[in-house]
Design brief:
Transcription Regulator spoIIAA, about 20% strand, binds FE3-S4 cluster, about 450 residues, 4 domains, binds iron/sulfur cluster, 5-stranded mixed beta barrel, Rossmann fold, globular, alpha/beta, binds S-adenosyl-L-homocysteine
Length: about 450
C-alpha cells in the first residue's frame, strides 16, 4: 500500500465517515469514536463520498448482520479502486470477533474492538502511512467516562452508562465481543446529563447491554435513575436493556416514583418455555417472568412493555414454541423484536447443533410475528379516545403536513403540523390507530 498521507493536503482536516450497525450501544459508541477523532483533528462527515477515512461500526449478533456488513465491505473495496487513498476500518463486535482475519485479505486497513477506540488516532496515522493496524484487547475498566461524545443535533441523546455483559446466555456472542461488565460513576453520568440539558436535550436514554446491573461501587441502577431524573423534571429519561433477573422491586418503585422516568420497559423474554429458558441460561422460569410482569404492572399501571424473542433455539419443540405464543398472549406486549435463532461460533449453544430445520424456524417466527402484530393493533386500538403527552421528534416520515412524536410509553403518534418544534410537548387526543402508530389531534400545549 502506498503512503496515503503524502497524497493528502496537509492543511485540510481529514474527514471521517462512520457507518453504524447493530444495537444502540453501537450508536453511542460511534459518538464516542467521533469524539475521539474530532479531538485528534479529524472532522466528521455524513457522506462517504468526501471521506478520507471510512469506519464501519459492526454487529455480530446474528449471521445475517455479519453478512450485510461483509457485502458492504465488498462495495467499499470496489469504490476504493477509484479512490486508492481511502482508509477503511472495521470497529465494534465483528472487529472483536474476527480480529486479524479481517486484515488478511487487505480489504481493510484497521480493525478496532469496542474497548480500544482511544487507539484510533494512532492506528489511523499508521494506516495513512500504509501500515495495517489492530487493537482488539478487551478491558475490565474502560468506560470512556472522560470522552465527550460527538452528537448530531437533536433533542435526544444516548448515554452509555455501563459496558459489557456477564450473563452468558448460551446463544449470545455479546459477552465475547464486549467483555466484562463495568460501569461509569454516577457523578460522571449526572454531570453529562446536566451538560446535555444545558445544550437543549429533552430526552436521554441510559444504555447498557444489561443496564440494570449497573453498579459503581456505591450506587445501583435505581440510584442512578433517580439521580438522573432529578437533574431536570422536564427531561424524559429512558433506559435499555433490562434483564429480568436484575429488575428489582427497588427499581420498579423508582420508575413508579418519578414522573419523568418513562413508563416503558424493554424486557426481553427470549422464550415462553422454562426448559428452553434454562437451556439458554436465562436464569428465570416462565413463572418468574410472569410474576415480574405482574409486579411491574401493579406498581406502574399504564406501563408499556416490549420484548425480544428467539424462534427455533436448538431442541425447541413444537409445544415449547406454543408456550412462547401463549406467554405473548398472557403478557400482551406493546412491541417485540423477533428473530430466528442464528448459531454463533464459540457460544455454548453452538455446540448444541442447530437442529430445528430452517423452514420450521421460519414458520415459527412468522407465527410469532403475526401474533405480535395482532396484539400491537389491539392494544393501539384500545387507546383511541385517550389523550397523551407527546414529545415532538420532527416531521412525519410519511407526510410533510404531519408531525411525529412519542408518548412516554414510547408509542409513535402522528398529528397535524402546527407551529411546533422538536422537543415541544403537546397533548394529543388519539382518533385512529394502526399496528405501529397512533394518530390524533392536538388538544393542548404543555410548554
Ligand atoms: N442485552 C440484551 C440483548 C442483546 S442482543 C438482552 O439481554 O436483552 C439483542 C437480542 O438479539 C437478544 O435479546 C436476542 O433476542 C437476540 N439474539 C442474540 N443472540 C442471538 C442469536 N444467536 N440468534 C438469534 N437472536 C439472537
Ligand atoms: Fe447477550 Fe444475554 Fe448478555 Fe443480553 S444478557 S447481551 S442476550 S448474554
Ligand atoms: Fe451487535 Fe455488538 Fe450490539 S453484537 S447487538 S453491536 S453489542
Amino acid at each position: 500500500m502506498s503512503d496515503k498521507l503524502a497524497q493528502i493536503d496537509p492543511n485540510s482536516r481529514l474527514k471521517v465517515y462512520v457507518e453504524t450497525y447493530g444495537c444502540q450501544m453501537n450508536l453511542a459508541d460511534t459518538e464516542i469514536v467521533l469524539g475521539i477523532m474530532s479531538k485528534s483533528g479529524y472532522s466528521p462527515t455524513n457522506t462517504m463520498n468526501d471521506a478520507d477515512v471510512v469506519l464501519l461500526n459492526t454487529c455480530s449478533v446474528r449471521e445475517h448482520a455479519e453478512e450485510k456488513i461483509r457485502q458492504r465491505l465488498g462495495t467499499i473495496r470496489n469504490q476504493r479502486l477509484d479512490k486508492p487513498n481511502l482508509v477503511v476500518g472495521v470497529l465494534g463486535c465483528m472487529a472483536e470477533r474476527l480480529r486479524s482475519n479481517l486484515l488478511d485479505d487487505r480489504k481493510v486497513d484497521i480493525v478496532v474492538g469496542p474497548d480500544e477506540y482511544r487507539k484510533l488516532p494512532q492506528l489511523l496515522e499508521g494506516a495513512l502511512a500504509g501500515t495495517q493496524g489492530m487493537g482488539v484487547r478487551l478491558s475490565r475498566t474502560e468506560t470512556y467516562d472522560d470522552i465527550t461524545p460527538f452528537r448530531a443535533e437533536g433533542i435526544s441523546a444516548w448515554i452509555s452508562v455501563m459496558r459489557g455483559c456477564d450473563k452468558f446466555c448460551t446463544f449470545c456472542i455479546v459477552p465475547f465481543t464486549r467483555g466484562r461488565e463495568r460501569s461509569r460513576t454516577l457523578a460522571g453520568v449526572v454531570n453529562e446529563v446536566e451538560q446535555l440539558v444545558r445544550q437543549g436535550i429533552r430526552e436521554v436514554t441510559l444504555l447498557g447491554q444489561n443496564v440494570n446491573s449497573y453498579r459503581d461501587g456505591v450506587n445501583d441502577f435505581a440510584d442512578l435513575l433517580a439521580a438522573v431524573a432529578k437533574v431536570e423534571p422536564a427531561l424524559r429519561v429512558r433506559f435499555t436493556t433490562s434483564h429480568p433477573q436484575d429488575l428489582s422491586d427497588k427499581l420498579i418503585d423508582t420508575i413508579a416514583g418519578h414522573d419523568n422516568l418513562c413508563k416503558y420497559i424493554h424486557l426481553p423474554v427470549q422464550s415462553g418455555s422454562s426448559r428452553v429458558l434454562e437451556t439458554m441460561n436465562r436464569t428465570y422460569t416462565r413463572g418468574h417472568y410472569l410474576e415480574l410482569v405482574r409486579r411491574i404492572r401493579a406498581r406502574i399501571p399504564d406501563v408499556a412493555l416490549s420484548t425480544d424473542i428467539i424462534a427455533g433455539f436448538p431442541t425447541e419443540t413444537e409445544d415449547e414454541h406454543m408456550e412462547t405464543l401463549s406467554l405473548m398472549e398472557e403478557v400482551r406486549y406493546d412491541g417485540a423484536y423477533m428473530f430466528k435463532y442464528s448459531p454463533r461460533e464459540g457460544t455454548p449453544a453452538y455446540k448444541m447443533g442447530d437442529d430445528v430445520p430452517d423452514d420450521v424456524k421460519t414458520r415459527r417466527l412468522s407465527e410469532i410475528i403475526s401474533l405480535q402484530q395482532k396484539l400491537s393493533y389491539e392494544i393501539n386500538s384500545s387507546l383511541i379516545g385517550r389523550t397523551f403527552d407527546v414529545m415532538v421528534d420532527g416531521t412525519s416520515r410519511k407526510s410533510d403536513e404531519q408531525l411525529s412524536g412519542r408518548t412516554d410509553t414510547n408509542k409513535t403518534v402522528v398529528f397535524p403540523k402546527g407551529s411546533l418544534k422538536p422537543g415541544d410537548v403537546v397533548r394529543v387526543k388519539i382518533d385512529r390507530a394502526s399496528m405501529a402508530t397512533l394518530f390524533g389531534e392536538v388538544v393542548g400545549y404543555l410548554n
